[in-house]
Amino acid sequence: MSALHRLIALLDALSLRVGQVVSWLTLGMVLVTFAIVVLRYGFGLNWIWLQESVVYMHALVFMAGIAYTLRENGHVRVDIFYRKLSRRGRAWVELLGGLFLLLPVTLFLAWISWDYVASSWALKEGSREAGGLPFIYVMKAYIPLMCALLFLQGLAGIGRAVLVLLGEDIPLFAENIGEEEL
Fold first, then answer.
1. Interatomic CA distance for residues 35 and 90, integer angstroms
2. Residues near 79 by Cβ (< 8 Å), separated by ≥ 6?
3. Is 129 helix (H, G, I), strand (E, B) or coil?
4. pTM for the whole thing?
């Protein structure tokens, strides 16, 4: 197995593990939301911090799950032309799209969010609500985390496209790869 194959497998495995953790977080989010409803309407209890914890989990599900979704080819795409392309044509689309759209956009998002996140961490920004969670700065750190995970999975996709263009018979997306192959 070449170094590129190992790198792709490593990056795919990272996205898979993060996606698995995030999938369990969605269950936690549902259970906490259920508890909020039962506590509020069954017992007349309401805690802002508990409600805000759902927002934190929801943000993490989307921000950390984005790379896993890319790995699994789950993002919405307009594939009027893409689906009609040959395998090599699709590999070119993935390669060029990754190099000229995905990677630059993730770098741009990381760059423009850096001051926003850093100032929140410097202030140890907390909730504006009385009784809310004092960790808004942690939630804002999900933005560069998302950028890093998406960038790394983008590299895996670019590597996979390169291998296809070099004539290797591998899938363009990890959705077709079993977990045991990683």
1. 46
2. none
3. coil
4. 0.89
